[in-house]
Structure formats: structure tokens, C-alpha cells
Specification:
Its main location: membrane. One of its GO terms (biological process) is transmembrane transport. The complex is composed of two ATP-binding proteins (UgpC), two transmembrane proteins (UgpA and UgpE) and a solute-binding protein (UgpB). It contains 15 helices and no strands. With 282 residues, the protein is mainly α. It has 2 domains: 58 residues; 206 residues, MetI-like fold. α1 crosses α14. The longest helix has 32 residues. The mean pLDDT is 85.
């Protein structure tokens, strides 16, 4: 039973507003800083209202070259980040769907061993295996390439486990009906399992896109060519010149721009994302 005490409602809303303010205030400061000149935002006190240089700063961030500590621009870095995030996301979902399908619906020797071997990789994050992975990628000649940026991150034990749990909830009657209708294994997978998994796929798409977009450590080791810098590395390179040489207004404009694609993905897929998480919990 829900208590409709007005004071309790007021308190809960006050806590909610306070939490939003704490999270949103740094973003607001970043946006304000991106609308002023570099000299204005280092003065004390810093302006708290938008300035008149918004378009100028964002244009310099998007298309400027040579001001960002490199010879490339943010537009190109965001293009690299987009493709890296998309390849990682689509690859993780495809591989996880197929591996979960094999584990649940096929009988083969050491099936459970394979499942637990995949599951145990949850305990080995990228940071733990990064040096041997780097050596393998370097010897294969994949440094400064999309393949090198994405292949070591393209398998997901978490997604495999989630799809396996979902496939186990599919009724056996559905499998029998598909078999009676003459559907082969791949047709059953393509026409029945994949459509049934669309909410889980949508939820994983959001999670994995943000994961791929925000990658920092692996691209930092992998990329020495400016043409292959993702935008997160680009921001780091912009800060490499020391405090005095940093155009903070351009840095903040770049940070705001870097937040837009993940935010857009979450907003567009919010309904499917929530439904996918709820269905997964079931």
C-alpha cells in the first residue's frame, strides 16, 4: 500500500530534484564554458550564463584542424568512434545470439564446459588481459585499424549469458511446432528466436553502444595514428599541451559533442531499453 502523505511526496520530489541538480550541474558548466572565449572561462568567478561564442566554438571543435593537439578534427574522431561503437555492438549481439543458441539447442561434447568457460571470462576484464592482447594484435599487424580496435572487444560473456537465460524460457512446444512445420535450425533461429529476443537485443544495443563509444584504455594503446583517434582519445590529446596551452572552451564543446550520440541512442531506444531489461529480469 502506498502512503499518500503530502510531506512524503514533497520529500521524495526534493531528493529527486537534488539528485538531478547534482548530476546535471557539471554538464551545465561544461555547456556554459563551451559558449565563452578561453580567456573568459578561466577568470574568477566563472560566468554562469551562456555567452555569445557558441557557434564559433562548436564550429572550431567540429571542423577546426591544428587547434586540438592534432591535425584531425572532432568530426572525424566522432566518425571513428561511431564505427567502432557500431562494430562492437553489432558484433557482440550477433556472436552472443549464436553462441547462446548453440549452447541451448544443440548437443555436443563438453557443452557445459564451453558454457562455463565463456562464463568465467566475466572475471577477466580487458585491463587484465590487455598486454597479451596487445602483443597478439601487434603481431597480426592490426595496430591503427578498425579490426584492431574492435576485434578484442567483440565477444561478450554477459550478453551470451543473458540470451541463454532467455532462450531457456522459450516453451518446448514452440520448438516442436517449428520442427513439425519443417523449420530447420537456422530458420527456427532467424524466424522465431531473433524476433522473440528483440527487446533484449534493443537493451543490449544501448548498453554495448555506450560501452564501445566510451572505450579509452584500449584505443589509447592501439592508436598512434591521428586518423584512428576516437573522440575520447581526442579529448585526452587536447589536454596534452599543459594547462596554459589548453583552449578550455573548445575542450568543453568537444565534450558536449561527444555526449550527444550516446544520449541520442538512449532517448530513441528508451522504451525498448526499459522493456528489454524488465523482460530479462523475468
Amino acid at each position: 500500500m502506498v502512503d499518500r502523505n503530502p510531506w512524503l511526496n514533497f520529500f521524495s520530489h526534493a531528493v529527486l530534484v537534488l539528485g538531478v541538480a547534482i548530476v546535471a550541474f557539471p554538464l551545465y558548466l561544461a555547456f556554459i564554458a563551451s559558449t565563452h572565449t578561453a580567456d573568459a572561462i578561466v577568470q574568477s568567478p566563472m560566468p554562469l550564463l551562456p555567452g555569445a561564442h557558441l557557434w564559433e566554438n562548436y564550429q572550431a571543435a567540429l571542423f577546426g584542424s591544428g587547434k586540438l593537439g592534432s591535425n584531425t578534427n572532432v568530426m572525424h574522431m566522432m566518425w571513428v568512434s561511431f564505427w567502432v561503437a557500431m562494430i562492437i555492438t553489432v558484433g557482440k549481439i550477433a556472436i552472443s545470439l549464436l553462441s547462446a543458441f548453440a549452447i541451448v539447442y544443440f548437443r555436443f561434447p563438453f557443452k557445459m564446459f564451453c558454457f562455463w568457460a565463456i562464463f568465467l571470462t566475466l572475471m577477466l576484464p580487458v585491463e587484465v588481459r590487455i598486454l597479451p592482447t596487445y602483443k597478439v594484435v601487434a603481431e597480426l599487424g592490426l595496430l591503427n585499424s578498425y579490426a584492431g580496435l574492435t576485434l578484442p572487444l567483440i565477444a561478450s560473456a554477459t550478453a551470451t549469458f543473458l540470451f541463454r537465460q532467455f532462450f531457456l524460457t522459450v516453451p518446448d512446444e514452440l520448438v516442436e511446432a517449428a520442427r513439425i512445420d519443417g523449420a530447420g535450425a537456422m530458420r527456427f533461429f532467424k524466424d522465431i528466436l531473433v524476433p522473440l529476443s528483440r527487446t533484449s537485443i534493443a537493451a543490449l544495443f544501448v548498453i554495448q553502444f555506450i560501452y564501445g563509444w566510451n572505450q579509452y584504455l584500449w584505443p589509447l594503446l592501439m592508436t598512434t595514428s591521428e586518423d584512428m583517434y576516437p573522440v575520447v582519445i581526442g579529448i585526452k590529446r587536447m589536454l596534452a599541451g599543459g594547462e596554459a596551452a589548453v583552449d578550455w572552451n573548445i575542450v568543453m564543446a568537444t565534450a558536449i559533442l561527444a555526449m550527444l550520440p550516446p544520449t541520442l541512442v538512449v532517448m530513441l531506444m528508451q522504451k525498448w531499453f526499459v522493456k528489454g531489461l524488465v523482460d530479462t529480469e523475468k
